[in-house]
Design a protein that fits this description.
The complex is a heterodimer of chains A (346) and B (305).
Chain A lengths: L9 H37 L1 H4 L23 E7 L10 E3 H7 L8 E5 L19 H37 L1 H16 L2 H12 L3 H27 L3 H8 L4 H38 L10 H7 L9 H28 L8
Parallel strand pairs in A: 1-2
Antiparallel strand pairs in A: 1-3
Helix pairs in contact in A: 1-4, 1-11, 4-5, 4-7, 4-9, 4-11, 5-7, 6-7, 7-9, 8-9, 9-10, 9-11, 10-11
Chain B lengths: L1 H26 L6 H4 L6 H11 L5 H14 L12 H36 L4 H15 L2 H15 L15 H27 L2 H9 L3 H13 L1 H9 L1 H15 L4 H10 L3 H29 L7
The chains are: A mainly alpha (346), B mainly alpha (305).
């Protein structure tokens, strides 16, 4: 018996392990990437003042329209002259300037000179028409978007949740009333209201947040009410009533924890919506007031300059796209984990 | 059905009142509304006349009544900037916006529905992946940025279509894509999930058992049912369509109502903005009401929510 060797399938087991891990990673890779992106955005928002390489609001006009870092420096051949004639800056270069490029130039010689400022790591994503560093502005824009989203969802979420709880619990005419108010708010053309407010009161954060909160609370109210209607029938609620719990106590101590999952999922999925709305309003000039950097207004800035400086519009737009995509992917995962019933919601 | 109709009608009217009150109050929010309704060159007579017309010496509720009466007659005063009656300025843009809306709607059906069908029929294949990406992008792309990028690639760089304006049939292409994109994604998801439901149902199994070819099954039997959710969805998301059309019009300088409203905002032309908001809200609510009633008629379950 001794001496018989048995082939132990060790290599195959580890191969299965590796495949499984890889498959899990691949399936979840989207999720991991989205968390990564969100972490970056949140950090950028919080640490904006510290990590931003330049001042987002001030720039040197001489730095205007610098392309992103991967643009090389373009060179052109210029003739060395004593004094550059008017309008011939692209073909001529003064002796003094030429000497900086090549020490032993003489008048009349052709010299290879840089056309315009090329890209550099100093301003990684380029500068805008006022010389402001786009990367820094994007970082500060992240902070603005996050603040607006946080306030909107905080206030709107609280209002919506409370009204949803009340509406679902009491039923009857209170429910009817609140639901009709919800219907009215859903039919209001809020973007037109935003325009009216901006004309009469001027652009401001207050108006932006107000409009967004008015938009947002109804979404919470309806879904929370639905959850409450479902939870109302549960045993632990009946037990609480029998035990003599007061209504506020039932609402906040018993029902609220039950709807928390729903609220969290809605909130996460709506952050993306808020960011899109806020950036759309800023784009139109009815959102974040200048000179505060906001992704939407940055895109608007670059709109007329696509031919010569496409990065002014493209970069902030990419920031919005990636952030919202990450939020949607994360929100979907959260919903599948916490409350798959919400799948029906669009 | 009666009760439902009455309910929806009341809500519509209340919403209209709310919007009119907002517009009315905001005109007076920073003091004398004439500051907003007249431009800097208005003389004292014009000032007086407008004061008379608006009834500024009367109590607020009477002013509001005057405002409503005028609005009912279609009199929103003169645009501060153009010096023409507001109603006149609104007519052509309304048509332009309607055009854009229809184009986007058709596009979203032509692209979204087939993609949804393919995505549901060929699970876990390339089409499915494409579908998922489209759906995600539809939810995440900022429409104004999409429009600008489309201009950059197809108009500035490639020169295939005009960058803006409303001249020639090709000028509607980019705006329609920008506006319709969100709905392409939405339709794709809806059709896909409706198809997945339908394809599992009994009568499909029967059709297969009868020997009907797969193609016929998909395109004739299943699709019929799968088309209902997108059409329903259109009705529900009129609001999103409004916002989207406003942005698409601004990005592409499409001379519609949305762009008119935004430029009214830029030029602080309150009379024009006021007129646009009211007219537009009336039309939008009327269409919403009509759509709701139609759906309730077609699908009785809706009447009881």
């Amino acid at each position: 018996m001794a001496g018989i060797s048995v082939a132990v399938p060790v290599p195959r087991v580890s191969r299965i392990r590796v495949t499984r891990t890889l498959r899990g990673l691949r399936r979840n890779s989207l999720f991991i990437i989205s968390v990564f992106i969100l972490a970056i955005v949140v950090l950028a928002g919080i640490l904006a003042s510290w990590i931003s390489p330049h001042d987002p609001r001030n720039g040197e006009l001489s730095d205007k329209n610098i392309p992103p870092v991967w643009y090389g420096q373009e060179f052109v051949s210029k003739t060395v002259v004593d004094q550059v004639e008017l309008g011939k800056r692209k073909e001529q270069i003064s002796l003094r300037e030429a000497r900086k490029l090549k020490e032993d130039v003489v008048l009349g010689e052709q010299v290879s000179a840089p056309v315009a400022k090329g890209g550099s790591w100093n301003q990684v994503l380029g500068t805008d028409h006022l010389g402001r560093d786009i990367f820094s502005r994007i970082i500060h824009g992240a902070r603005i978007s996050l603040i607006v989203a946080a306030v909107t969802l905080g206030v709107g979420g609280v209002i919506g949740t409370v009204l949803g709880l009340v509406s679902g619990w009491y039923g009857g005419w209170i429910d009817e009333l609140i639901m009709r108010v919800v219907d009215i708010f859903l039919s209001l053309p809020l973007i037109l209201v935003a325009l009216v407010l901006v004309v009469s009161l001027g652009q401001s954060f207050a108006i932006l947040v107000t409009v967004l909160v008015l938009f947002m609370w109804v979404r919470f109210a309806r879904l929370v009410r639905g959850e409450v209607l479902r939870l109302k029938t549960m045993d632990y609620v009946a037990l609480a009533r029998v035990a003599g719990a007061s209504t506020p106590r039932i609402l906040f101590v018993h029902l609220l924890p039950g709807v928390t999952n729903t609220v969290i999922v809605i909130a996460t999925l709506q952050v993306g919506v808020v960011i899109l709305l806020e950036s759309s309003l800023s784009f139109l000039g009815a959102g974040v007031p200048p000179p505060t950097p906001a992704w939407g207004s940055m895109v608007a800035d670059g709109r007329d300059r696509l031919a010569e400086a496409w990065w002014i519009s493209t970069m902030p737009g990419l920031a919005i796209l990636l952030t919202v995509m990450a939020l949607n992917l994360f929100g979907d995962w959260l919903r599948d984990t916490l409350d798959p019933r919400l799948r029906q919601m669009e | 059905m009666q009760r439902f109709l009455v309910q929806r009608l009341i809500i519509t009217l209340v919403t209209l009142v709310v919007v009119s009150v907002i517009v009315f109050v905001m005109a007076r929010a920073s003091g004398d509304p004439r500051g907003l309704l007249l431009d800097d060159y208005a003389g004292p007579d014009q000032w007086e006349k407008l004061g008379e017309k608006l009834g500024l010496n009367k109590p607020l509720y009477q002013q509001y009544w005057i405002f409503l009466k005028d609005a009912f007659r279609g009199d929103f005063g003169e645009s501060v900037r153009e010096k023409r009656p507001v109603m006149e300025l609104i007519k052509d843009p309304l048509l332009a916006t309607f055009e854009l809306g229809i184009a986007a709607f058709i596009l979203s059906l032509i692209v979204g529905v087939p993609l949804g069908v393919l995505s549901s029929v060929k699970r876990n294949s390339l089409w499915d992946q494409v579908g998922k990406v489209v759906a995600l992008l539809g939810q995440s792309l900022p429409p104004f940025w999409l429009g600008i990028m489309l201009i950059f690639f197809f108009a500035v760089k490639l020169g295939w279509v005009p960058a803006s304006g409303r001249e020639g049939w090709s000028s509607i292409v980019l705006p329609a894509i920008t506006l319709g994109w969100f709905f392409v994604a939405a339709n794709l998801r809806l059709v896909r999930s409706a198809m997945l439901d339908v394809l599992d149902s009994e009568y499909i199994k029967l059709a297969r058992a009868k020997g009907v070819s797969t193609t016929v099954i998909i395109w004739k039997h299943a699709l019929r049912n799968a088309l209902i959710p997108p059409l329903t969805y259109m009705g529900i998301t009129l609001g999103a369509a409004i916002t989207g059309s406003l942005i698409a019009e601004v990005v592409f300088a499409w001379p519609g109502i949305g762009r008119l409203a935004v430029s009214a905002m830029y030029y602080s032309d309150y009379s024009l903005l006021q007129g646009i908001v009211i007219i537009f809200t009336v039309l939008y609510l009327a269409v919403s009401l009509l759509v709701d009633v139609l759906y309730a008629y077609v699908d009785p379950r809706i009447r009881y929510t």
